[in-house]
Amino acid sequence: MGRPSKQDYRYHDDGNVALYRRPNSAMWYARCKLEDGTALNPFSTGTEDEAEAVKAARKRTRFAQVDQERGLDPGGKTFAFIAEQWLKMMRKEVEKKISTKAKVDAYEAITRRYHIPYFNKTKITEITPKSLAAYETWRAEYWTSGPGAVAEFETITRKDGKTYKRKTKRVARGKMDAEDTVLRQIFKFAVKEEYLPVARMPTIGGKKQVGNGTQSNRRPAFTKEQAGKLLDYDANAFYPITAKMDAATVARLEDDRMVFKAWLALMLGTGIRPGKEHHGIKWKHFEQHDDQNGKNHLFLTVQKDTKTGSRTVHVDDEAYGKFLAPYKAFPNRDSEIFIQDEDGNPVYGTRFNAPDDYVFCDQETGKPILRFDRQFHTMLRNLKMEHDDNGDAFTPYSLRHTWATLKLNAGMDVRLVALNLGTSPEMVHRHYGHDNTKSRASEFADVWLSKEEE
To answer: 17 and 57 in contact (C-beta within 8 Å)?
Structure first.
């Protein structure tokens, strides 16, 4: 927003209070000065009445004068206040369907657990790079020697959205990318609402540097052989279903494992983002088309309320033929007819296979499953594949990176890879692809110093 021109101001108190309105708004904003000429950050008076606006500006000035005499930054808003205002704005975005409840719930949980308790009454204008460095240290120790170490219970959100409490696990937990995202958004909100000058917006978080000096936040990707092991994974080999289990338990386990396997196959077969992009997928979002050679292909339409908007994604043949088609077409558990696999075991599909049914859903309620993290990490632990060769931990997002890496290594045009991922070729070059000396070993020439024997 441009600064109002001088004639747009209404001056009071010998010019120490200047009122103005923003474009398309009837609300009065104020710019005030203290006795020594110190200018306060502009702020909303919260009223459309000019007389009331003057009263609000004078009150703010008095409080700021007291802060200055106490040696504090005059009139600055606290981090806690701004964070609460930001959360209110985010809730309004949910009501307007600009954002999702699940996303805002997650953001609120992060800032109430970490950001607000740490910065709390600190003025937003007093948070410096030094303050942020101290926060990083505090956050690193949160679960080992900080507040998390003394908490007896923690709240866990299940895949169906329900929450429960369990005893806190005393482990070191690294900071998630979302934590920096939330903190950045709060500071951006402070700048937008003129609680913080844009020049004092701090740099929050950092990205790893790659060899050429460009920034990257690459996640580890599975190799082709590892991806094959994931698709071949059988949870029953590690946690067998036994005759001692009651029918309800058996049904729940088989359903959970069936839906997880279908989700895993689609992630590896499309490169879509796990999370928001898989939440809203319904069967009607799939469609088949023949190419110019008459070969049939399956496509998925990612919905418009996701990170990069609507796009059409190609689904790999193997993911479609071996996992998705049987998952939808096989008779369900309630049918008298079932299909047997090669070992003679009954195979079922999802109970919810109508066009408007969610593809990855709870088999009792039909509600979409938001997260598969628990099953994903249990699978990696059982397969002893929790980290890549560099010691970096795999996450569900690694499935996306795996799809991109395998396609690039197979020679697919980077433009097509970018189209399927919903990003740009530049971002693919920067963040995807994991070529290394091991993956390209066959291309190295072993003989070069001396001639081969004739």
So the answer is: yes
Tokens of 117: 């308790």
Residue 108: Cβ-neighbour burial (10 angstroms; 0-12, 13-18, 19+): middle
- The one-letter code for the residue type at 87 is L
pTM score = 0.57
Counting beta carbons within 10 angstroms of the beta carbon of residue 187, is it exposed (0 to 12), middle (13 to 18) or buried (19 or more)? Answer: buried
Report phi then psi at 19, rounded to 5. Answer: -100, 145
pLDDT tens digits for 83-111? 999 999 999 988 988 888 888 998 999 99
Fill in the amino acid letter for 150.
Answer: V
DSSP run (H or E) holding 165: strand 163-167
Question: Largest alpha-carbon pair distance within the chain?
Answer: 100
Residues 252 and 260 sit within 8 Å (Cβ to Cβ): no
**Can you state the percent helix, strand and coil of the chain, rounding each to 5?**
45, 15, 45
Closest CA to 227 of 420, 370, 388: 388
Residues for the chain: how many in total?
454
Q: What is the C-alpha to C-alpha distance for residues 360 and 280, in angstroms, rounded to an integer?
A: 9
Separation between Cα atoms, residue 302 and residue 276, nearest integer Å: 10
Strands 153-157 and 311-315, sheet pairing: unpaired
Q: What is the pLDDT of residues 28-68, one digit of tens each?
A: 999 999 988 888 878 788 899 999 999 999 988 888 888 77
C-beta of residue 438 within 8 angstroms of C-beta of residue 453 = no
